[in-house]
# Entry
Amino acid sequence: MMQIGGADVTTPARTVSDLARTAPLITAVSAGDAALRLGALTESDFDPVLRDCWTWRGIARTKRVIPLLDGRSESVGESISRVRMIEHRIHRPELQYVIVINGREYRTDFAWPALRIVGEFDGRIKYGGPDDLFSEKRREDAIRSEGWLVVRWVWEELWGEVPAFVRRLRPVMEQQRRAMTA
# Structure
Protein backbone atom coordinates (compact mmCIF):
# COMPACT_ATOMS: atom_id res chain seq x y z
CA MET A 1 0.00 0.00 0.00
CA MET A 2 0.97 3.58 -0.53
CA GLN A 3 -0.73 6.91 0.10
CA ILE A 4 -1.80 9.59 -2.33
CA GLY A 5 -3.43 12.70 -0.89
CA GLY A 6 -3.83 10.95 2.46
CA ALA A 7 -5.74 8.01 0.97
CA ASP A 8 -4.44 4.46 0.95
CA VAL A 9 -4.04 3.17 -2.59
CA THR A 10 -2.47 0.12 -4.13
CA THR A 11 0.73 0.36 -6.16
CA PRO A 12 0.41 0.34 -9.95
CA ALA A 13 1.74 -3.25 -10.03
CA ARG A 14 -0.79 -4.39 -7.43
CA THR A 15 -3.58 -2.60 -9.30
CA VAL A 16 -2.66 -4.29 -12.59
CA SER A 17 -2.43 -7.61 -10.74
CA ASP A 18 -5.88 -7.10 -9.20
CA LEU A 19 -7.27 -6.29 -12.65
CA ALA A 20 -5.58 -9.37 -14.11
CA ARG A 21 -7.08 -11.54 -11.38
CA THR A 22 -10.63 -10.17 -11.62
CA ALA A 23 -11.28 -8.43 -14.95
CA PRO A 24 -11.06 -9.31 -18.64
CA LEU A 25 -7.57 -9.64 -20.14
CA ILE A 26 -8.02 -6.47 -22.24
CA THR A 27 -8.62 -4.43 -19.08
CA ALA A 28 -5.47 -5.59 -17.32
CA VAL A 29 -3.27 -5.28 -20.42
CA SER A 30 -4.62 -1.82 -21.28
CA ALA A 31 -4.00 -0.56 -17.73
CA GLY A 32 -0.57 -2.19 -17.55
CA ASP A 33 0.49 -0.83 -20.95
CA ALA A 34 -0.54 2.68 -19.90
CA ALA A 35 1.29 2.43 -16.57
CA LEU A 36 4.45 1.27 -18.36
CA ARG A 37 4.15 3.99 -21.00
CA LEU A 38 3.73 6.68 -18.32
CA GLY A 39 6.68 5.38 -16.30
CA ALA A 40 4.50 4.49 -13.30
CA LEU A 41 5.45 0.82 -13.55
CA THR A 42 8.34 -1.44 -14.49
CA GLU A 43 8.25 -5.18 -14.97
CA SER A 44 10.33 -5.67 -11.79
CA ASP A 45 7.61 -3.87 -9.80
CA PHE A 46 5.63 -7.09 -10.07
CA ASP A 47 8.22 -9.06 -8.04
CA PRO A 48 6.85 -8.05 -4.61
CA VAL A 49 3.26 -8.59 -5.79
CA LEU A 50 4.06 -12.11 -6.97
CA ARG A 51 6.02 -12.82 -3.80
CA ASP A 52 3.44 -11.40 -1.37
CA CYS A 53 0.29 -12.58 -3.14
CA TRP A 54 1.44 -15.94 -4.46
CA THR A 55 -1.47 -17.81 -2.82
CA TRP A 56 -4.17 -15.41 -3.94
CA ARG A 57 -6.93 -16.67 -6.19
CA GLY A 58 -6.22 -15.73 -9.81
CA ILE A 59 -2.50 -14.96 -9.35
CA ALA A 60 -1.79 -17.26 -12.31
CA ARG A 61 -3.67 -14.73 -14.46
CA THR A 62 -1.29 -12.02 -13.23
CA LYS A 63 1.62 -14.20 -14.32
CA ARG A 64 -0.01 -14.57 -17.73
CA VAL A 65 -0.56 -10.81 -18.11
CA ILE A 66 2.94 -9.59 -17.19
CA PRO A 67 4.71 -10.82 -20.37
CA LEU A 68 1.91 -9.36 -22.51
CA LEU A 69 2.44 -5.80 -21.27
CA ASP A 70 4.16 -3.32 -23.56
CA GLY A 71 4.57 0.38 -22.85
CA ARG A 72 5.00 1.08 -26.55
CA SER A 73 1.23 0.80 -27.01
CA GLU A 74 0.19 4.41 -27.32
CA SER A 75 -3.54 4.01 -26.75
CA VAL A 76 -6.13 1.71 -25.25
CA GLY A 77 -7.20 0.85 -28.81
CA GLU A 78 -3.68 -0.34 -29.63
CA SER A 79 -3.55 -2.42 -26.43
CA ILE A 80 -6.93 -4.02 -27.13
CA SER A 81 -5.90 -4.67 -30.74
CA ARG A 82 -2.80 -6.50 -29.51
CA VAL A 83 -4.81 -8.62 -27.06
CA ARG A 84 -7.27 -9.53 -29.79
CA MET A 85 -4.33 -10.54 -32.01
CA ILE A 86 -2.99 -12.76 -29.22
CA GLU A 87 -6.43 -14.30 -28.65
CA HIS A 88 -6.74 -15.12 -32.35
CA ARG A 89 -3.18 -16.32 -32.80
CA ILE A 90 -2.01 -13.52 -35.06
CA HIS A 91 1.79 -13.43 -35.07
CA ARG A 92 2.96 -10.75 -32.64
CA PRO A 93 3.73 -7.50 -34.41
CA GLU A 94 6.52 -5.01 -33.91
CA LEU A 95 5.10 -1.98 -32.13
CA GLN A 96 5.83 1.59 -33.22
CA TYR A 97 7.90 0.24 -36.09
CA VAL A 98 9.72 2.90 -38.11
CA ILE A 99 9.90 2.72 -41.90
CA VAL A 100 12.43 5.08 -43.49
CA ILE A 101 11.55 6.31 -46.98
CA ASN A 102 13.79 8.83 -48.74
CA GLY A 103 15.30 9.83 -45.41
CA ARG A 104 11.91 10.42 -43.79
CA GLU A 105 10.72 8.31 -40.86
CA TYR A 106 7.18 6.94 -40.76
CA ARG A 107 6.20 5.32 -37.47
CA THR A 108 3.50 2.64 -37.58
CA ASP A 109 1.27 1.26 -34.82
CA PHE A 110 1.96 -2.36 -35.78
CA ALA A 111 4.23 -3.97 -38.33
CA TRP A 112 5.16 -7.41 -39.54
CA PRO A 113 8.40 -6.53 -41.37
CA ALA A 114 9.02 -10.01 -42.78
CA LEU A 115 5.61 -9.82 -44.47
CA ARG A 116 5.81 -6.10 -45.27
CA ILE A 117 2.48 -5.45 -43.57
CA VAL A 118 1.57 -2.43 -41.49
CA GLY A 119 -1.40 -2.35 -39.12
CA GLU A 120 -2.96 0.93 -38.02
CA PHE A 121 -5.56 1.44 -35.31
CA ASP A 122 -7.48 4.66 -35.94
CA GLY A 123 -9.30 6.42 -33.17
CA ARG A 124 -11.48 9.42 -33.99
CA ILE A 125 -9.24 11.87 -32.13
CA LYS A 126 -6.25 11.07 -34.35
CA TYR A 127 -7.52 13.36 -37.11
CA GLY A 128 -8.28 16.86 -35.88
CA GLY A 129 -9.08 18.27 -39.29
CA PRO A 130 -8.72 17.96 -43.05
CA ASP A 131 -4.99 18.72 -42.96
CA ASP A 132 -4.41 15.79 -40.58
CA LEU A 133 -6.39 13.46 -42.80
CA PHE A 134 -4.54 14.60 -45.92
CA SER A 135 -1.19 14.20 -44.17
CA GLU A 136 -2.14 10.67 -43.11
CA LYS A 137 -3.16 9.83 -46.67
CA ARG A 138 0.24 11.01 -47.95
CA ARG A 139 2.01 8.99 -45.23
CA GLU A 140 0.10 5.84 -46.19
CA ASP A 141 0.79 6.41 -49.90
CA ALA A 142 4.52 6.67 -49.14
CA ILE A 143 4.48 3.42 -47.14
CA ARG A 144 2.53 1.61 -49.88
CA SER A 145 4.95 2.92 -52.52
CA GLU A 146 7.69 0.90 -50.82
CA GLY A 147 5.73 -2.35 -51.21
CA TRP A 148 4.09 -2.45 -47.78
CA LEU A 149 0.44 -3.41 -47.39
CA VAL A 150 -1.54 -1.30 -44.93
CA VAL A 151 -4.49 -2.67 -42.95
CA ARG A 152 -6.51 -0.16 -40.91
CA TRP A 153 -9.18 -0.66 -38.29
CA VAL A 154 -11.34 1.35 -35.90
CA TRP A 155 -12.97 0.82 -32.51
CA GLU A 156 -16.05 -0.92 -33.87
CA GLU A 157 -13.85 -3.59 -35.47
CA LEU A 158 -12.22 -4.72 -32.20
CA TRP A 159 -15.23 -6.67 -30.93
CA GLY A 160 -17.11 -9.85 -31.70
CA GLU A 161 -16.21 -13.51 -31.56
CA VAL A 162 -13.73 -12.94 -34.38
CA PRO A 163 -13.15 -9.20 -34.68
CA ALA A 164 -13.61 -7.67 -38.13
CA PHE A 165 -10.00 -6.47 -38.26
CA VAL A 166 -8.76 -10.01 -37.58
CA ARG A 167 -10.98 -11.33 -40.39
CA ARG A 168 -9.36 -8.78 -42.74
CA LEU A 169 -5.79 -9.06 -41.43
CA ARG A 170 -5.50 -12.85 -41.46
CA PRO A 171 -6.04 -13.33 -45.24
CA VAL A 172 -3.68 -10.44 -46.03
CA MET A 173 -0.99 -12.16 -43.95
CA GLU A 174 -1.63 -15.50 -45.66
CA GLN A 175 -1.48 -13.87 -49.08
CA GLN A 176 1.83 -12.21 -48.24
CA ARG A 177 3.28 -15.48 -46.89
CA ARG A 178 2.35 -17.27 -50.12
CA ALA A 179 3.72 -14.45 -52.28
CA MET A 180 7.02 -14.42 -50.42
CA THR A 181 7.53 -18.17 -50.68
CA ALA A 182 6.58 -18.36 -54.36
User: Anything to note?
Assistant: The longest strand covers residues 117-122. Residues 55 and 70 are 26 Å apart (CA to CA).
